[in-house]
Amino acid sequence: MFAVPPNTLPASSGLAVAHPVRIARELAADRTSWAPLLRYDPDQRWAGLLHRADGWEAWLLSWLPGQRTDLHDHGSATGAFTVISGTLTETVVRSAGEALHVLRPGQSRVFGPDHVHRVRNDGPDPAVSLHVYRPERPRTTRYGHDLVTGHLRQD
Predict the structure, then answer these.
(1) Which CDD domains match (predicted)?
(2) CA 140/CA 60 separation, integer angstroms
(3) Predicted confidence (pLDDT) at residue 13 exceeds the cutoff of 60
């Protein structure tokens, strides 16, 4: 048995201090909050701001088959994304090589500073995902592969 000091308070259950993946999953589960906002764009993936709070924001994204991001990072932000429907493929690029993650509804990925990745919809059906960034959605850096050395380069 152990003693709990009298000044100990339980951790807040609010989203202000919650992990980004918890926020993404809770918002994704609340279909009534995002379904009326959802759009599909035949020319590029669609993104709409779903929620902005002190220190974080959430974005709803739709992906038609074949739509993708470029190779990018999210600067100093941490975050997560959860697939709501469809299938998304994330390619993470590290110094040791590439890692491929296929994500289905209900699955999430977490990222931190310097996480370089690309996300795409390789499936036959549209996909929807919810992305949370802490702090707010930062400026991204785009990358490419140096064809001679095979190393990443900033574009």
Answers:
(1) cupin_CDO
(2) 17
(3) no
CATH 2.60.120.10 fits 20-154, yes or no: yes
How far from chain centre, in Å, is Cα 76? Answer: 14
Delimit the domains of the chain by residue range.
Answer: 20-154
Q: With bands split at pLDDT 50, 70 and 90, how would you rate the model's confidence at 9?
A: very low
- Residues 19-33 pLDDT 10s: 899 999 999 999 999
Phi and psi at residue 7, to the nearest 5°: -90, 10
97-135: pLDDT as tens digits: 889 999 999 999 999 888 889 999 999 999 999 999 997
Give the number of other CB atoms < 10 A from CB of residue 8.
7
- Round to whole Å and give the CA distance between 10 and 150: 50
Q: Which residues contact 89 (CB under 8 A, 6 or more apart)?
A: 100, 101, 102, 103, 119, 120, 121, 122
